[in-house]
Specification:
With 297 residues, this protein is of the alpha/beta class. 49% of the residues lie in helices and 13% in strands. Strands 2-5-8-1-9 form a 5-stranded parallel beta sheet.
């Protein structure tokens, strides 16, 4: 941990306040988890249902620390090379042709040098110069495959990676690593052992209403509470994708764009696509009636 980081994060309350200034409202348990990850230099795994604010937590942390956010979006088939580095093949080919035109012979070490290296998110985060460590967001790590997950072990344990042509690259300023997962599959115990862990649950209605007011300019108290309460009631239904905080914000923003100041049945039906993202869910809510979702029954 650097003196810069220690001065910026003396305690949990300071971090929670700094996150609030970015309009991210973290409770004490989440604030403590993020504080420990930053101060201990240990990766943190954030799990929870989609839309509860896992990705936003990492973004807010980077803003609170006034440092760079480096994001790696995971997906099926993601390879280590795509996440770590690539060689600049066009530039290497150009160098070969120039050498041939001059009658020179290039060695392999001439072509596979740092000058031809293209850093991708993981290497970018390790090479971050400071003064504070970068926040490395490894988003939706559960979407990657087992091989990529195993590749992360060295990075998470030692803040280093091995490039066959260049050797081991170790971070002078190890990044604050935040991994997120929607639990589409179980992660290996070996990965979890290297991380702190925090489950982000759906916030209560009052907190959702306050988040809406902060994130949707012009949303008044009444509308924010109506949206927050309606979203909570939607989650009680048998939906394919229960709405989270992100959908609550989107719904409130849609209502504001339409100039709606009071969430009624007609407005809810017109803007349902902002909060429900599956045809089956729209059908379920329409069959049960929007009045119940709005608390009018």
């Amino acid at each position: 941990m650097t003196d810069e980081l220690a001065a910026r994060l003396p305690d949990v309350a300071t971090l929670v306040g700094a996150l609030a200034e970015t309009h991210y409202l973290a409770d004490e348990s989440l604030g403590t988890a993020l504080f420990l990850a930053a101060r201990m230099g240990q990766p943190i795994l954030l799990e929870g249902e989609p839309g509860v604010g896992k990705t936003e937590a990492a973004k807010a942390l980077a803003t609170a620390l006034d440092t760079a956010l480096v994001r790696l979006q995971c997906y099926e088939g993601l390879t280590a090379a795509e996440a770590l580095y690539e060689w600049n093949y066009p530039r290497q080919l150009l160098a070969i042709r120039l050498a041939e035109s001059r009658g020179e012979m290039l060695r392999e070490t001439d072509l596979f040098s740092p000058d031809y290296l293209l850093p991708r998110p993981l290497l970018t985060a390790l090479d971050h110069p400071g003064p504070r460590p970068a926040v490395l967001l490894i988003d939706e790590v559960d979407r990657g495959d087992d091989e990529f997950e195993a590749f992360l072990f060295e990075l998470l344990a030692e803040s280093s990676v091995t490039i066959p042509e260049l050797g081991t690259r170790r971070a002078a300023l190890p990044p604050v690593v935040v991994l997120t997962s929607n639990r589409t599959r179980d992660l290996h115990d070996a990965l979890k052992r290297r991380c702190l862990y925090h489950w982000i649950d759906y916030p209560d209605t009052e907190r959702v209403a306050e988040i809406i007011r902060r994130r949707v300019p012009g949303a008044d108290v009444s509308l924010a509470r109506q949206v927050a309460g309606s979203v909570a009631r939607l989650r009680e239904l048998d939906l394919v994708k229960p709405p989270g905080v992100a959908e609550a914000i989107s719904w409130a923003a849609a209502l504001r764009v339409l100039g709606v100041s009071e969430l009624g049945k007609e407005a809810a039906e017109r803007t349902a696509g902002a909060v429900l993202k599956y045809a089956e869910d729209l059908r379920t809510v329409r069959e049960s009636g929007f009045a119940g979702v709005l608390g009018d029954e």
